[in-house]
Amino acid sequence: MCIKNLILEAVERHINSLDWITLTLMGAFLLLAIVKTAYPQRFEDFLSLLTSNKFMMFRGKKNKAFHPFNILLFFVHLISFSLLFFLFFNYFWEESSLEPVFLFIRIATAYASFVLLKFGLEKIVGNVFDLDAQIDSYLYQKISYRNFIGLILLIPSLIFIYTFTPTAFTLYSLLGILVLTNIFSLLLIYRKNQSLITGNWFYFILYLCALEIAPYIILYKLITI
Question: pTM for the full model?
Fold first, then answer.
């Protein structure tokens, strides 16, 4: 009997659950599958966003930023950006006492709050200056480009998590590419709205300083305190 107990103890195994990052990425790909299945033509047009104006011309006519297509892709965008910020935090601040999953949740919550608060302020500004249609169009274009960038960012996240351990150089390079890509997308939007901007230079510069530059400076100051 004692021998049997010893044998049972020797072969006893504990089955660990799937890694939370894997589950998070699976959730992102599940959302993409739902989007592709529910809106196949819109998704196809979305994938050609940087090479064709078709998505903005035909899909953006009603400027519905809260279209289910955009909302689902925003969650993919949220997961993608939050994973990138998590990799940065985990690399440069390894002494964090938080469990990784709770750290990721905090990052995702903070990022979502920042984006939604900024979005709400832009809507308020548009309403105050009676520019609702123009602001809606601008926000639709901006969220479309950000969602596209979030989709692309899933690739380096997969590489850094499962294949290649990131270095400071690769992380800073990716951050630089991300900043430049965001600037490039804004320039594309401003070019498409050039006639509107030309007639409202004062409001445009005021908006640029107050809602496109200042929030990121404040966020940087809060992070580096």
Answer: 0.83
